[in-house]
Amino acid sequence: MWRQPIRFCKRPLSCFCVTARVVPLIGTLQSVHLGEYSMPLTAYNNVPVPSFMYGTAWKKEATTQLVQLAVAAGFAAIDTANQLIHYQEALVGEALLALAQQGFTRDRLFLQTKFTPTNGQDHRTPYDASATLTTQVKQSFDSSLAHLHTEYLDSYVLHGPYQRQGMGDADWEVWAAIEGLYQSGKTKMIGISNVTAGQLTQLCAQAAVKPMMVQNRCYAALEWDKEVREICRVHGIIYQGFSLLTANREVFADSGIRAIAQRLGTGLAQVVFRFAMQVGMLPLTGTTNPQHMKDDLQAEQLTLTADDMRLIETIGM
Ligand SMILES: NC(=O)c1ccc[n+]([C@@H]2O[C@H](COP(=O)([O-])OP(=O)(O)OC[C@H]3O[C@@H](n4cnc5c(N)ncnc54)[C@H](OP(=O)(O)O)[C@@H]3O)[C@@H](O)[C@H]2O)c1
User: Fold this and answer.
1) What is the spatial distance between Cα 66 and Cα 287, in angstroms, rounded to a whole number?
2) Which pTM value belongs to this model?
3) Best mutation site among 86, 285, 300, 302 for ligand 1, i.e. most ligand atoms within 8 A of its Cβ?
4) Does ligand 1 lie within 6 Å of residue 89's CB atom?
5) Contacts of 269 (CB under 8 A, 6+ apart)
6) Closest among 217, 265, 211 to 234, alpha carbons compared
7) Disulfide check for 54: which of 70, 104, 139, 142 has CB 3.0–4.6 Å away?
């Protein structure tokens, strides 16, 4: 029942006006009827979640300009991380200041950032790396709020567990700190990235507050991360798929998907993003090209048939 496109509206983001039927239950996902909005949304604990997210990794100095272009193109959800190796979170914040001047105020945007443990950082940690993990999370979160010029986040994500298999003591300590941020109301949702099916199952079974978001690299060869997506479906977690294009280059050589794109008069990227939406994901795009931003958003307008979906689902197998 979730992630059904509700209504498409061509109006620009500046017309954003949520008249959503809110969902009072903790941990529920529900499609909502919205007023004027450029994209369909899903509500999670009263939080409207846009159906497409703009990712800011590897944009370097261009981050500020690209975030502004993405929002102007129609993206309402921005993903970043407090991790200088790959992201410029402070430059996302610069873009947000400029956007606010243009009327794209904070309440119109869905902001997601991440706590990156030391094993994903270089020496420029946004926290005292010798402090306890609980303190590291708090310091990183406060630094993110400062970078993004905001008092709250829509989603705060653990960038990845410390270990490849299972949840270790460090992961539980970090997760408890993230749960605390959620309970304090400073972030509306919490989630985890780069998580295995086993880790997610453990987290859902034992956490005081279950993740509400999962963000994973989505490989066609793994049936588009089917195992993790199924756990998300069972627990009402929003699954965010990233590197849908870059992780699946072989998909673009497939004659079947090419025929679908040709029939619909669209590009291969749009077919992949539309597939992701129709299968229940919240896709991310990392494009740096203003035309591709608009093209990618056009995926919202497509409809894939059941046969198309079957073909794409098994394309990398
Ligand atoms: N949690 C994590 O550990 C993690 C890791 C990696 C990424 N992420 C998040 O996911 C986001 C997206 O990742 P990604 O950049 O790998 O995603 P992606 O969208 O699969 O890859 C971006 C590439 O696709 C191209 N592209 C996009 N739209 C296109 C179109 N319509 N036609 C042709 N080419 C198109 C881009 O080229 P152009 O620039 O020329 O359009 C760029 O080379 C990141 O920015 C980040 O926010 C998270």
Assistant:
1) 9
2) 0.90
3) 285
4) no
5) 245, 285, 292, 295, 296, 299
6) 211
7) 70
pLDDT of 2 over the 70 cut: no
Cβ of residue 57 lying under 6 Å from some atom of ligand 1: yes
- Mean local confidence (pLDDT), 170-185: 98
**Token duo for residue 298:** 């056009």
* 59, 199, 226, 240, 274 from 192: Cα distances, Å: 22, 10, 17, 10, 24
Task: Give the list of residues 6+ apart from residue 140 with CB closer than 8 angstroms, or none.
Answer: 82, 115, 116, 125, 126, 127
Q: Under a CB-based contact definition with an 8 Å cutoff, are residues 208 and 250 in contact?
A: no
The response to whether residue 225 sits with its C-beta less than 6 Å from ligand 1 reads: no
H-helix or E-strand spanning residue 63: helix 63-73
CA of 270 relative to ligand 1 center, distance in Å: 13
Distance 286 CA to ligand 1 centre (A): 3
> Ligand 1 centre from 242 Cα, in Å?
7
pLDDT at 19: 24
**How many Cβ atoms are within 10 Å of 45's Cβ, its own excluded?**
18
Amino acid at 33: H
